[in-house]
Design brief:
Strand content: 15-25%
Largest sheet: 5 strands, antiparallel
Strand order of the largest sheet: 1-2-3-4-5
Order of helices and strands: HHEEEEE
Number of strands: 5
Distance between the termini: 23 Å
Number of helices: 2
């Protein structure tokens, strides 16, 4: 397992941020397409089944690319990315949640998101 320093995690987040932004946009398109394809679903200018399958394939590619960095993609809606690290001798996850301006939170591995605390570094 890759361990990140805070600086490394922030740099990696900046590097993958375009992919994360694209993931959010494609996630929205896929949701709209799926709703339109459901029985009685509202029409959409985004297309049909072929476009949904393409969006799903792109989502898979983006998810794979994020995970290849050593980061953990914990949620898609909202998007939640954790970077394994060690702070003060404890195993933690540096935590970025969709909407956060930067990587500024962490939580102990054993506590999960409920134990989220602000980084002091």
């Amino acid at each position: 397992m890759v361990l990140f320093t805070v600086a490394q995690a922030r740099a990696e987040l900046a590097r993958i941020r375009p992919s994360l932004d694209q993931l959010v946009a494609v996630r929205a398109d896929a949701a709209e397409l799926a709703a339109a394809l459901a029985p009685g679903g509202p029409p959409t200018a985004l297309g049909g089944m072929a476009e949904l399958k393409a969006a799903e394939a792109l989502l898979d590619e983006l998810i794979t690319a994020v995970r290849a960095t050593g980061a953990h993609l914990k949620g898609l809606a909202p998007l939640l990315v954790d970077f394994p690290a060690e702070l003060d001798g404890a195993d933690v996850l540096l935590c970025w949640l969709e909407g956060d301006a930067e990587l500024s939170w962490y939580h102990r591995v054993d506590l999960g998101f409920a134990g989220r605390r602000p980084l002091t570094q």
